[in-house]
Design brief:
With about 525 residues, the chain is an alpha/beta fold. It contains 18 helices and 27 strands.
């Protein structure tokens, strides 16, 4: 049983993945929590600040919440947009939804009204889970506008709730009838909807099943060497695929380890004796700078995973030297394919490549420089997006990644660029087309082109080239304020504005983005 709009893997390949043991046929909550009883129940599963939650307590809390949500009318295949910060409630809610067979749609903490409206509409979600306030933003007011009095609103934190709005924290703690009504998921059911990088506008929805995401967790955890003694720091938002399941929080729990849901601070790593974490290159560089400046190195750190953006060989070498731990490059996508450097790879391979596919049954090919992939945990199509699927997937079921790669002599892949026109700020993908459309709504902008510019901290920042409409020339502050007023996520706001008389064009009359990228890169070096 699968929700309408999901594109399943063809039956012959699905059967092959089952025979190979990649698909276990179990729900993710059962896989992550393991069987009840035994020594695991009393071990700590989650850490948030001073709070410690054991596996037994997490199992009980997710069961109570699942029962409460069922009593509120939530059923199998119902979609819930989840926008919660890293913390115990985030993990508990996901497990509760998986127990019900409901489908979380994972928004990010930085998303605002513009993006949330799109996710609700695209997913058909009738429920929204939010914090009361985060980063000074009033999420409840936004949610009320979006839901318009219809649907289910779950709120984390004190917010002066109205009738029909649910205090998520209280729902986790309050006993509820534990009756089962047969609504739990099967392995082939959609388990969650992740977000694409949105290379052509607002993000598409990526449907991951209990089977394929379970495979994702198992193979990632194995290649990271996780076990019961592992302590994983979720340094990135856990709504990201990297921090959620590669192996992330859920892969750590699957192996019986401990997940720390705290700020990405070296002191937290020392206090909690963290052994593994995953970061984007910009954050890794800041940690190395801090240690080089005299901050104590987290001596229990065994493995640093780096992904989400390009990692230069020079920075890779510096991280290994300064932080004194093993480095693992992780290249992949929420659509599926994951590549890892292996823990026993030579130093030059770890520093200079983005790894190789996680499983032998991952099929990859390079066509005109572009990487294409299919396999046991790679989707066969986006959710409710037939037009996008016709472009993104080949007739024989390979996903066109849009990434330009070459093979290293070791057999690993080296990522050299992107076909897609996106800006990658610290792992957050910003679609140039979306930002351009929003900028054109400003009364002072006649033409717009957004391109990536080099940035030491985040890898890439946003430069907006604009042609003014009339004599009044907009300023960067005015453009940022205007976009902020539209409810656009702040990580998408331009860092630099260049007002030009006209945009350069290619021979066929298209905006010459390559020329603009070269120009801003050259000017950034001056």
């Amino acid at each position: 049983m699968t929700v309408a709009g999901y594109v399943p893997v063809p039956p012959e390949r699905a059967e092959r993945y089952r025979r190979a043991g990649h698909w276990a046929g179990a729900g993710l909550a059962d896989l992550v929590l393991g069987p009840p009883g035994g020594g695991r129940e009393r071990r700590v599963a989650l850490v948030e600040g001073e709070e410690r939650v054991t596996y037994g307590e997490l199992r009980a809390a997710s069961g109570r919440l699942a029962a409460r949500l069922r009593g509120l009318g939530l059923r199998r295949e119902d979609r819930v947009v989840v926008q919660l910060p890293n913390g115990v409630p985030f993990v508990t809610l996901l497990l509760a939804l998986w127990r019900l067979g409901a489908i979380p749609v994972l928004a990010l903490p930085a998303h605002r009204e513009h993006e949330l409206r799109h996710l609700l509409a695209m997913s058909g979600a009738g429920a929204l889970a939010i914090p009361a306030r985060l980063h000074r933003a009033d999420h409840v007011a936004v949610a009320r506008r979006l839901l318009g009095g219809r649907g289910l609103l779950l709120v984390l934190g004190e917010a002066g709730l109205r009738p029909g709005e649910i205090d998520l924290g209280a729902a986790m703690r309050t006993p509820a009838p534990r009756r089962e009504d047969g609504t739990g998921p099967g392995g082939g059911d959609v388990a969650l909807l992740l977000l694409s990088g949105g290379s052509t506008g607002l993000p598409k929805l990526i449907p991951r099943t209990h089977d394929d995401y379970g495979c994702n967790l198992r193979v990632s955890a194995e290649l990271a060497g996780l076990g019961e003694d592992s302590v994983y720091l979720s340094a990135l938002p856990a709504g990201h695929n990297f921090a959620l399941g590669c192996p992330g929080v859920m892969g750590t729990l699957l192996r019986g380890g401990r997940a720390v849901l705290g700020p990405p601070a070296l002191g937290i790593m020392t206090r909690e004796r963290v052994t593994v974490t995953a970061v984007v290159p910009g954050l890794a560089a800041r940690w190395a700078d801090a240690v080089a400046a005299g901050e104590p190195r987290p001596r229990t750190l065994r493995l640093l995973q780096v992904g989400g953006a390009h990692l230069s060989p020079d920075l890779a070498r510096r991280l290994r030297r300064v932080l004194g731990c093993a480095l693992q490059q992780v290249y992949g996508m929420a659509e599926g394919l994951l590549c890892f450097t292996r823990l026993d790879d030579p130093g030059d391979v770890v520093e200079g490549t983005q790894g190789r596919p996680a499983l032998p049954d991952d099929e990859v090919r390079i066509v005109d420089g572009e990487l294409q992939a299919r396999g046991p945990y790679t989707i066969a199509g986006y959710f409710r997006a037939p037009e996008a699927n016709a472009v993104a997937f080949t007739a024989d079921g390979f996903y066109r990644t849009g990434d330009l790669v070459r093979r290293h002599p070791s057999g690993n892949l080296v990522v050299e660029g992107r076909v897609k026109d996106v800006i990658n700020r610290s792992g957050e993908k910003i679609a140039a087309a979306e930002l351009e459309d929003l900028a054109l709504a400003h009364p002072g902008v006649a033409e717009a082109a957004a391109v990536a510019m080099p940035d030491a901290a985040s890898g890439e920042a946003v430069c907006l080239y604009a042609v003014a409409r009339g004599p009044a020339v907009p300023t960067l502050g005015e453009i940022r304020s205007f976009l902020d007023g539209l409810g656009v996520a702040r990580y998408k706001l331009p860092d630099r504005l260049e007002v030009v008389a006209g945009l350069p064009l290619t021979a066929v009359g298209k905006v010459d983005k390559a020329a603009l990228r070269e120009r801003v890169a050259r000017e950034s070096r001056v």
